[in-house]
Amino acid sequence: MFPNLAALVIDEADTCGTAIVTQSTAVGTPVNITDGQVIAYTVTVTDGAGNTATCPVNVTYEDDDLPTFTCPTPQTVFTNGNVNCEANVPNLAALVADEADNCGTAIVTQSTAADTS
After folding, report:
1. Distance, CA of 77 to CA of 38 (rounded, Å)
2. pLDDT at 10
3. Fewest CB within a 10 Å sphere: which of 12, 21, 44, 58?
4. Distances (CA, A) of 46 to 2, 11, 20, 43, 49
């Protein structure tokens, strides 16, 4: 949602009446963005005589929402039947089927590669 940049202007003034502060995109407008994207918007102050002053405001959008998923249930892994009592690491990442992210695709990995012993 687009922030209220006009509300951040606190020192508007004019000798010919009340200055009106507006911004180029309405507050609350949904904006399609990517993480880290910077978009320049314009804040405008207009006086009673129709004179205007403007300034650009860069807004950086950052994704601070964590991806979501359901953890796999506990797994039982049996040894390979060899003398060293080894077992292969299961592919736990493949058991995650509901991964989601608000700003793109969630990528599922695991800390030890599957099928290593």
Report:
1. 48
2. 63
3. 58
4. 21, 13, 5, 10, 8
Phi, psi (5° rounding) for residue 44?
-125, 135
Domain ranges of the chain: 6-60, 64-117
Please, what's the largest Cα pairwise distance for the chain?
92
CB 61 within 8 A of CB 48: no
Give phi and psi for 106, each to the nearest 5: -85, 135
In this structure, which amino acid lies at residue 25? T
Placement of tokens 């796999």 in the chain:
72
pTM of the predicted structure, to 2 decimals: 0.57
CA 46 – CA 35 distance, rounded (Å):
33
